[in-house]
Description:
With about 350 residues, the chain is α/β, with parallel strands linked by helices.
Amino acid sequence: MSAPIKYVDVWDTRDYDLIIDVRSPSEFREDHIPEAISLPVLSDEERQIIGTRHNNLSPFEARKLGAAFVAQNISEHIQNTLEKMGRDFRPLVYCWRGGQRSKSFALVCSEIGWRTSILKGGYKTYRQSVITKTEKLVKDFSYIVVAGRTGNRKTDILLGLEEYGAQVLDLERLASHRGSLLGKLERIEQPSQKRFETLIMDKLRCFNPHKPVFLESESQKIGQRQIPIVLWKFIKNSPQITIKAPRHCRASYLSKKYKHLTRDKKGLEKLIEKIPGREDQNRTRHWHSLITNSLWKELSYDLLKFHYDPAYDKSLNNNNRKTIFEYNHEDISDAVLSRTVDDIFSKYR
């Protein structure tokens, strides 16, 4: 006997054993509900084939071919991914708008006897909930910004705090980017803007509002991804912990941290050309010379002195943050950072 199909408005409850995204793989990659798995009823190639048939033959022929593709794909998912699910299995299914794709999958699940739910409005409903939830969640927390000039290993301090159990919102990790012009990670692409916002929302909803959230001082844009304006306002106005370290130590660290950029000198020169405010062409030529001669520590030092440090100092005028603690590091060794992490955590445990 078939089980009833229920249309629901909520995706983030414990009422479902599994969330199934039946959209195409490319749609899933762009963004999806946290913890959802991809069981597409149509692949990207199949959707393209159906579209061509719709245009060249008729809507009827397109629907007939689409039904064949959908039936075959659902069959494979039932026999593989869902093969071990018992009679009490309760899936939530969604597609783009809660239409034919989710309904076709839910009908089969229902005939098996699984109590299946369909998210009304599909991904579009979920996407709106991300915006709404983020605006609400952001306001539930107090924030402490770890700030300082480039190369102070602020990200490592956040990592250390996180390992101790502190609540850390590592925006650069979520954005898959180190946040500066030279911050692109090797062989890793940034998530879509929608995915970035989902990752932020998902992280925040796991936090305890009675404990502070630590994050790093950032520009509003991390690579090509924009920090939601509601969160950005808190970053600009929350209290900060300032980290300081000598420029030569930071230069040495950065020359090793960004070593992957040195494998493509021409590419690095093009990135250097994009640095804003390059009125001094002699300085740019000097940077090119350092690249040509593989003087990476010297390049790092010069970039810090003439670009990154002045840019950071200027950015302080755009913030309204009060410094609550300041750490003056004689170097940026692991031992020094470990003591700082210990001290910060002891104040907020």
